[in-house]
Write a structure and sequence with these properties.
five-stranded mixed beta sheet; binds adenosine-5'-triphosphate; binds magnesium ion; Rossmann fold; 11 helices; 2 domains; 421 residues; BirA Bifunctional Protein, domain 2; alpha+beta
Length: 421
């Protein structure tokens, strides 16, 4: 879009809408357009790989859930954001805001003995929450993507061990998305002392956390017994500072609460009925997508990390009024495009003919693909393409025959991101 949407209330909403990544249908409800869907898919792939690394098995549960299991857990009226609807025959349904009510009786049907445990299943699915104030673009949606994993254990000790493993793996998932997530103690409901939130520090965050500058221990203000400037009671050395942040993930020990509600027990070695201990692990791919932009942007637009950028390379060819020069430019760009794609480099090619160079560059900055390559009469006169990384201010020329190799090396090199949000 030529202009930023006038009603955008956050950086991610403004940039993602203007650059054509997402389109708003209503408050908190978005379509993912081609560029945006590529980013969301990459984030989902990362979390999928990370959950497989902790033995999670992927399933897909329905989003449309009948009333009965919500009554079993007494949550039909307790969850204020529950979307409720009537089906044929006046039957009540809810759109899933979370899936304990489906997954617990599901696993119960297959797991009969302690020998069948542990089991860990996850899904990546849209969740529905009737948020009173859907806002800030992808940060708070009414329909939004979630990865929710549920683990089942024959003992508290086994749950705790697995929980710690997932807690660690989550850091890798966020790091791969270009986010430096802070593990934060948060309220865990009535079942365990704390849950753990993954918080990303940014001035646009809705949450307030306190973090020790020394040992990195952090706690959400909701349960904090500290204030800004206090000595850290964890390490005794650092000072605790107030930080604004966005919650991008949350993991809980559910203890035996949901298993008890559904009468889910397993046969123990001596034949008696044993309790089933559960953990749940949430991660928000769409909120992660918005958070990446809150953290990685500048005045000109977005700055995607290589790992989740819609494409690796933004190839720009500049048109020329002389037909034969124009053909040379097109040919060189085509060759570059094909060679890069054949090597597995993802390239989007701006070959528009009726658009000025300055406009193409402004669009490239807005879209924020990490590497821009330009082919023009000027670069071809040097037998080169112009190379500019999104975070750099200066461009340089790279000989056409070296571009493929340099791009491959650049892609394999570690990310060099700096936060701006
Ligand atoms: P919040 O306190 O921000 O409303 P929550 O604590 O209710 O979120 P959880 O139930 O912990 O959310 O959900 C797990 C993850 O799903 C969150 O950490 C977040 O990444 C994502 N998420 C939750 N609500 C939304 C939403 N409305 N829009 C986008 N992502 C969300
Ligand atoms: Mg939460």
């Amino acid at each position: 879009m030529k202009e930023a949407p006038h009603d955008a209330d956050s950086v991610n909403a403004r940039l993602l809408v203007q650059a054509g990544f997402i389109n708003q249908l209503a408050a908190g409800i978005y379509t993912y357009l081609p560029l945006g869907l590529r980013v969301l898919t990459k984030i989902k792939t990362i979390i999928r790989e990370e959950m497989q690394a902790v033995g999670g098995q992927e399933i897909l549960m329905p989003a449309l859930i009948p009333k009965a299991p919500w009554e079993a857990t007494k949550r039909w009226d307790a969850i204020d954001v529950l979307f409720k609807l009537k089906g044929a025959g006046d039957k009540d349904f809810a759109l899933g805001p979370t899936h304990e009510e489906v997954v617990t009786p599901l696993v119960q049907q297959y797991v009969k003995s302690y020998k069948d445990l542990p089991v860990s299943v996850y899904q990546i699915q849209d969740k529905f929450r009737n948020e009173p104030r859907a806002k800030s673009g992808l940060l708070r949606g009414r329909e939004f993507a979630m990865k929710d994993m549920y683990s089942f254990h024959a003992s508290l000790a086994d749950l705790e061990q697995y929980y710690d493993r997932v807690k660690q793996q989550y850091l890798s998932a966020f790091a791969r998305c270009g986010l430096d997530a802070i593990v934060t103690e948060a309220s865990g409901g009535v079942f365990s002392k704390y849950s753990h939130e993954y918080q990303v520090a940014t001035t646009s965050g809705e949450d307030i956390i306190y973090q020790c500058g020394q040992c990195r221990w952090a706690v959400n203000r909701e349960i904090a017994e500290v204030k800004d400037g206090d000595a850290c009671h964890r390490c005794g050395k650092g000072v605790v500072r107030e930080v604004k942040a966005i919650e991008v993930g949350n993991i809980f020990k559910l203890s035996t609460r949901f298993a008890d509600d559904f009468g889910f027990h397993v046969a123990l070695e001596d034949g008696s009925a044993g309790k089933v201990w559960m953990g749940c692990y949430g991660f928000g791919p769409s909120r992660v997508m918005g958070s990446i932009i809150e953290v990685h942007h500048d005045d000109a637009g977005m700055r995607w990390p290589k790992s989740v950028a819609p494409y690796h390379v933004h190839l720009v060819s500049l048109s020329h009024k002389d037909e034969s020069v124009k053909n040379q430019i097109d040919e060189a760009a085509q060759e570059l495009h094909d060679a890069l794609e054949a090597a597995g480099v993802e390239v989007v090619w701006d070959d528009r003919e009726d658009v000025r160079a300055g406009e193409k560059f402004a669009d490239a900055d807005l879209i924020g693909i990490p590497l821009r390559l330009v082919v023009s009469e000027k670069t071809l006169s040097e037998g080169a393409a112009e190379w500019k990384e999104r975070h750099e201010t200066e461009a340089r020329l790279v000989k056409l025959e070296d571009v493929l190799q340099e791009t491959k090396e650049w892609l394999a090199a570690p990310e060099r991101l700096t936060s701006h949000g």
